[in-house]
Amino acid sequence: MNPFHFGVSDKRLFGVYHPAAAERSGGVGVVVCPPARDEYTLSHRALRQLAGQLARAGHPTLRFDYFGTGDSFGECHEGRTAQWRQDIGMAIDELKSLSGVSRVALVGLRLGGTLAAMTAAERREADVSRVILWDPVVFGNGYVQALRTRHDEFLHAGWRTAPASSEPADGLFGFPLTDEILADLRTVDLTTVTPYPDNRVYIVVSQRTREGDELRRALAERGTEVVFEDVKGLRVWEKDVLLSRELVPAAAIRRITSWMV
Amino acid sequence: MRERVLRLGPEGRLVGIMTEPATRARELPVFLMLNAGVVHRVGPNRVYVGVARRLAAMGFASCRFDVSGLGDSMTRRDGLPYEDARIADTREAMDHLQRALGGDRFVTLGLCSGADHAFRVALADDRVVGSVLLDGYTYPTARHDAERRRDRLGEIRRRLLDLAAWKRLVTGRHPIWGMIRARVLRRKDLRMQFMMDTPPRDEAESGIRRLVDRGAHLFFVYTSRQAAHHQSTVRAGEPFPPADPSGAVRVTCLPDSDHEFTLLTYRERLLDAVGDWAETVWPQAVLQDRS
């Protein structure tokens, strides 16, 4: 495991490269695309485990932080989805150069899945071989609404000594929500994103949702083959007292690793 | 400002990020940021990144790193229990930074269990000349506890009439389910390791005295419930931390902030508070960087 910064000077990204286990090398490379905002911190451990498993299975794997998140350069308010899609592109190039692979699979959790699908669809180089979406965000509006609900629940959670309210300057549940970021998120609609490599996409969910079902219907209508599994696993990116950050969503990790064979 | 990845400790087991100002004065201490609970080195809501960059703008270098087994760091090979391992990890990180940077003075900074860690490292190693304890130890008075119990009853009555709370309860999103699951699964091991292990008050006070006698500076920042705990001791005329006329022990309360600085306004106030404290204790910092 090798942590490092990569990319251009004022927009350097933090990444961790997991080389393929020597005895099993030869697998396709994998770029792991993390979720954003509060979900990023909560799923850090899960994504480290996922990257470790993929590397052990013979896949050189790179996980990284988007610009303005985690240990990457940039401030939180500078995190824009167009930039993050470019970041995924940079991570693909970096992994190819580090490992020597010519084709790369993208595995993305939550908004990371959504951005991975968008990046694969718009990337000119034909170097993305597979896209795996893990509980992807389907509609940006729903994502923002869920954020607002979490923020509201947080304000009423009983920790405050003052009245439960907040100003726009307080951000939304831990991170800024500028007009630009809001506009970015609102345009997200995964049901309209195609094509996928080989016209096929892999989706693993921890719990079935109406939006997820809608996504699969829309993809089927567009002639995209969906390999789907509901592992009924842990939703580690959701805050749960004491438990979420410590546990590993083994079922989802197992399924993703098996799809890479 | 410059940020780079560091591998610390034997075999480079620990992963950290060094944040350095454009020019660093060698006599200034280096800040070490210690994991808050099990959150990796960026801290809850990326708060440690903000603190590191604010300090760098003032001329201070800092290193945020993961202790063994957390974040991106490997586990130790010597099998030390967690409480001892995190101290040993931090001392090894200091050894590395001392060799690499030439400075031998450090300030430990941590939130919640990280504050406990920061305090214990300070006691264990004379190279620590300051500690920033974010929601560190508190010892609420008995009267405060009684008042709190009464408040809680009122709160429960209020919540019984709150439709949203019932909705959260029924849909499984209420925090009480997490607490029940933690009980059912008997995850006391997690509580012991990653939540604050508060020592008896006299032990904490004698530790503070030892550090102050050694010339160290302590900065306590309390939010939400912890601020109320602190204020209850002040009202009772027996403040914790004890009042210190020399100015070596300072306290700031942000009672309207939550424990993880979720609201940006209070995160900014935390950065200001830590910056002001560092500037008070090491006034040459800002001057050095501007010169």
What does this structure look like?
- The complex is a heterodimer of chains A (261) and B (291).
- Chain A is α/β, with parallel strands linked by helices.
- In chain A, 36% of the residues lie in helices and 17% in strands.
- Chain A has a single domain, classed as Alpha/Beta hydrolase fold, catalytic domain (Rossmann fold), CATH 3.40.50.1820.
- Chain A has eight helices and eight strands, in the order βββααβαβαβααβαβα.
- Chain A has an eight-stranded mixed β-sheet with strand order 1-2-4-3-5-6-7-8, sandwiched between helices.
- In chain A, 49% of the residues are buried.
- The model of chain B is unreliable at 189-193 (pLDDT under 50).
- With 291 residues, chain B is of the alpha/beta class.
- In chain B, 47% of the residues lie in helices and 17% in strands.
- Classes of the chains: A alpha/beta (261), B alpha/beta (291).
- The interface between A and B is large, with 42 and 50 residues.
What descriptors fit this protein?
heterodimer; A: 261 residues; Rossmann fold; eight-stranded mixed sheet; 8 strands; 17% strand; B: 291 residues; alpha/beta; 2 domains; 11 helices; 47% helix
